From TrEMBL:
Species of provenance: Caenorhabditis remanei
Protein name: F-box domain-containing protein
Source organism, top-level taxon: Eukaryota
PANTHER family in UniProt: F-BOX ASSOCIATED DOMAIN-CONTAINING PROTEIN-RELATED, F-BOX-CONTAINING HYPOTHETICAL PROTEIN C.ELEGANS
Transmembrane segments: none
Record lineage: Eukaryota, Metazoa, Ecdysozoa, Nematoda, Chromadorea
């Protein structure tokens, strides 16, 4: 069957009967067929908003392509099989010497565990070419291994293995040093390198991380920083607020969210040490936060009655301490002019 010679309309109707995992297999056949799929199925491929690589263990990898509406469009299971002989099939554009092959259904592949790094890099390289640069390419790991060092990764959600060093962690980000969003989850103590590229990510979430919170806060250069189980103290918050107010740092910061118990902070003491203004009524502010599950942003809201103005440019910030959180949200006078009329 000379498929490539069929009229475009016929080719499109045939491709529309395949799911993405089947189209992917077709694209392995030749570069010409891959380019044809990309051209004719562009409307489907453009729906992909996130490509996620989940390294669940040393022997199990899941690859998902998720639409902008959070629908799973592609689910691939890459499973290590050291008990059977792997007959390389040159899938994902990899050389015939690389031990990976289809293993039954169109969404299951088998590979040799010793080649995990080569396999995940080959899969990502192919999918990046197949879907293009528009999706959010994300790496997710559990605590059995460090994240793979891949190019063109936009976000990472990682649980760090025990005893990982600052240098080893840094080496995981050399290929994609400027990521938009990083989530680090680790229950034991660890340190970041003083000049870590992690400080330059736009959105950084540290969950259950026993780190030097003050050091991380004052080295952070991005837009949003979230701490869970932080060790930040009153003196650190006072120093942070005064630094922000005097425009000596945190020019990029839009949100600081500290997930702690309120007894760690004496809000009255903070008020006395920083020129915080109080409005005669509470205002509900809403802001965008990066989703932890996909590339979308979600609106969050809170009520504020305490505010701080930056002396250099009139930019404002509002803050509050609830039962479980300290919020610091930055806003412009133009966006929230009503607040200015109620600040004492």
């Amino acid at each position: 069957m000379k498929f490539l010679s069929f009229p475009t309309l016929v080719q499109r109707e045939i491709f529309d009967t395949f799911d993405l995992s089947e189209l992917l297999i077709l694209s392995f056949c030749s570069k010409k067929l891959k380019y044809l799929i990309q051209a004719i199925q562009k409307h489907r491929l453009n729906k992909v908003g996130t490509v996620k690589y989940s390294l669940l263990s040393l022997v199990y990898i899941i690859v998902n392509a998720i639409s902008h509406d959070s629908d799973k469009m592609l689910n691939l299971f890459i499973i290590s099989d050291d008990d059977s002989e792997i007959l390389p099939m040159e899938v994902f554009g990899m050389h015939r010497d690389v031990p990976i092959c289809l293993d039954g259904p169109s969404h299951i592949y088998a590979y040799e565990k010793e080649q995990t790094g080569v396999i995940i890099e080959g899969i990502h390289t192919f999918l990046y070419q197949f879907f293009g640069p528009s999706p959010d390419y994300r790496v997710c790991t559990n605590n059995s291994q460090p994240p793979p060092n891949l190019k063109n990764i936009n976000s990472s959600a990682i649980i760090l293995p025990e005893n990982i060093t600052a240098e080893e962690l840094e080496n995981c980000f050399t290929a994609s040093p400027k990521q938009e969003y990083i989530v680090i989850n680790k229950e034991t103590t660890y340190k970041l390198s003083p000049n870590s590229v992690i400080y330059d990510t736009d959105y950084l979430d540290l969950l259950r991380c026993d780190v030097d919170g003050e050091d991380v806060l004052f080295r952070f250069n991005g837009k949003s920083l979230t701490f869970s189980d932080s060790n930040l103290q009153n003196s650190t918050i006072i120093r942070f607020l005064n630094t922000w107010k005097s425009d000596r740092g945190f020019q990029n910061l839009k949100l600081l969210w500290i997930d702690v118990s309120p007894e760690l902070f004496n809000f009255a003491g903070i008020m006395e040490s920083v020129d915080i203004k109080q409005s005669d009524e509470s205002f509900t502010l809403k802001w965008k936060q990066r989703s932890t599950t996909d590339a979308r942003y979600r609106w969050n809201t809170a009520d504020f009655s305490h505010h701080l103005m930056r002396s250099s440019d009139g930019v404002g910030a509002s803050m509050t301490i609830t039962q479980n959180h300290f919020y610091f949200v930055v806003w412009s006078e133009i966006e929230n002019s009503e607040i200015m009329n109620h600040i004492k």
